[in-house]
Amino acid sequence: MFSRYDFIIWIVIVSLAIGGIYYHQNLVSMGENLVEISVNGQEYEVIPLTDSNGNLRREIEGVNGLTVVEIRDQRVRVISSACPDKLCIHSGWIDRPGQMLVCLPNRVVVKIVSDEQQDIDFFTN
Amino acid sequence: MTFKKAAELLAVVIILGIIIFTILNIVNQESIQKYSKTELLLDTVFDITVFTEDEAEGNRLLREAFNEVRALEKTFSRFVSGSEVDEINQNAGEGSVEVRSDMLKVIKSGIYFGEITEGSFDITIAPLMELWGFGTGKQRVPSQEEIEEILPLVDYREIQLDEQRFTVYLPQEEMSLDLGGIAKGYIVDRIVQYLESQNVEIASVNAGGDIRVIGTREDGTPWRIGIRNPRNSNGQDIIAVIPIVDQAVVTSGDYERFFTSDGKRYHHILDPHNGFPAAKVISVTIVAEECITADALSTAVFVLGPRKGMELVESLSGVEGLIIDNQEKLHVSSGLQDIIEIR
After folding, report:
1. Which structural domain range is residue B238 located in?
2. Is the reported ipTM for this assembly greater than 0.85?
3. Cβ neighbours for B284, distance < 8 A, ≥ 6 positions apart
4. Domain A34-113 class?
5. Of B19, B25, B225, the CB nearest to A122
């Protein structure tokens, strides 16, 4: 028979089920933005963009020398690099997933990635 | 049946429903996964993303695709000694060179795009590029005399192609091929063909801004391509968004490669007719079914300018374009007008 305790158990089960769905959906959409640094196609370091509320600097050893990357206020830029044309520095700040900074001569790529579907998939040159 | 029994049954059905829904939801989300890989190839950042159900399959597709890119790079690069392009250039004025079918196809396409653009796109532009120092790292502004001396060497109509014997011949010793404006697009197309042959339904290939996609996004909506604002010093600001499905997009801009001399800026998109950087537009984006078309036409339309360029775009089926002229005015082709999003 259906007693008062049964009701309590059912309510607990229903809340757990709904809570589970809610938690799962949150988990899926919570994909945070990561700064992915690679040298010569090999992963070098992955840093959450949110870590940058302070001021983060990384000195990356490329094939020609150092590339210095600054992560600040949820944005990333290259501040110095061992390359002749400095295109990576001229690119300025990036802050959205899909964007990247590339120092071809030094073989360093800094990319913002996210698991979440973004508004823009690709940026042309 | 009592009311209580009915309520109990209903509750059980609802809860089972919720549980089944949740499980299906999780299973569904985990069934298709995104696999992507980035490598520095063809002097740019080459990125391939595939969506498949199986991790081993995803990794295999990426591995095979990149093997293909590396093999094709060896054939097409002007700067790899011993490449087929290098062979053709070394034997200019001396003898014809036997080439692979890939090379024959690309040169044939190059000649075709030369024809439909009245030479505004020219795969024999290498001597002119060299004179300006693009690609060598030692850029300079050449004199008018120097340019006039070089210009007769830039003429795609001189290329001798033998499709039966698979040979290519450049009749003048100083002539040389530069497939940079077309080979990247061809390689992107080849990778897309490979992935399609493996029954991939959702994928993207991005060779430093030469983009082609298979299908739609995972959620069934078109892929959205952000077009860079050509005059924003920040460099990552976008001026328009173009949605695409099963298409390719390439942008050519005067901000990509340039040098400054005596306070004047000189960029790398040279007009094969007069030998100087084309100045009527600052950015051209072409949408086409194949990336090779978008690649060649973005350069050609840049040289042709907004009026003639747009006429060409409108005359070709399956080709759309966005031209930003030197007054920073946007020109949008008819097929894009309803879907482009201007920011």
Report:
1. 222-343
2. no
3. B251, B252, B253, B298, B299, B301, B302, B309, B321, B322, B323, B324
4. mainly beta
5. B225
